[in-house]
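ok trying this again, last paste got cut off
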Amino acid sequence: MSGLNFNISEIIAMIGLAQCVYLLVYMAFRSGDFRRAAVPFLYFFVLAAAFLMDFGQRFLLPHVPYYAEAQWGAWFCGPPLAALLVYQLLHITRAPPVQAFWVLFLIPVAWFAARYMALQDQLCLMPDHCPMMHEWLIVMGIGAGVVSMLAVWSRRDIVAELHSQKVGKDRYWLVLTLILVNLGFLAAMLLGLTPVMAAADAEMTRKLLGIACAYLAGTSLFRIYPQAMYIINRAAAPAQELSAGEMDIARKIEHKIEMEKVYHEPGYNRADLARELEMPEFAVSKIINLRFGKTFPQLLNEKRVEDAKRLLTETDAAIKIVASEVGFNSIASFNRVFRELSGQSPSQYREGKKAII
């Protein structure tokens, strides 16, 4: 009995599926507040389903009713879900509102429209087994994808603002990645309906774009910020010394640090924080000391060093650039604080990590 022989397309689908499963497992174990991680989780779950159905197409398509339509739905749900994920990235402190989910209705509308158009052809009496139905599904799916991307375009002003903000540039590039990958997917599907590109090549292209999306978006989400993927309430047991009002202020301070990453701004200090919170500096100091058990400068420097360690490990950026990116005013202060908190210099830390790798 001969073993299973997988073709290149199926192997690529397995690679994409493995990437998506890894991301889903990561999110499942690292998301404290799942509401904010729901959109990226749903995005990669549907992408995983698309890869899985591509992998099983040769074995299941002839035997499972509506398999091709389910496969179409999984792939063409990508642009609407990407629009929702972009909204999540633009408004990182909250999940998309219910009204933002209207884009998901584009897919069933596209299916009904494709079925209606296929039935207009007298030779297509059974749309489920009619090549015309498949072509109309792609056409209507492209239309749904274009509308989804237009929804993203309507927020282009917010996207542009991200690029101008130091703490928003990472999210800006992630948004741009999602847009370009999904536009590439729609373009490939359109070309697959023309003599320019064979249908099999279009399907291969969408798989490669899906893998690129899973890798780039996933890596960025892990590297840039923990908001959507690593949302953990670090204070499950609130300090008894803080009142309800002070606890609310403490959560705002955590938001400033974890979400807005104010520590990336050189010179940001307690006075700046107090002014933004509209309260006296001594009151801010009290809350920080009770909540975190350290001073505000200590808190900021710890976060800066954490980010610096990541950049030193994952990039080849010069140490001076790393210091500037994480919020230090000078290379001297960066070296001093880094050594105090880690016991070694930035260059020694990088060399040690590279030696382990």
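PB: full thing came through this time. Residues 224-240 have pLDDT under 50 and may be disordered.
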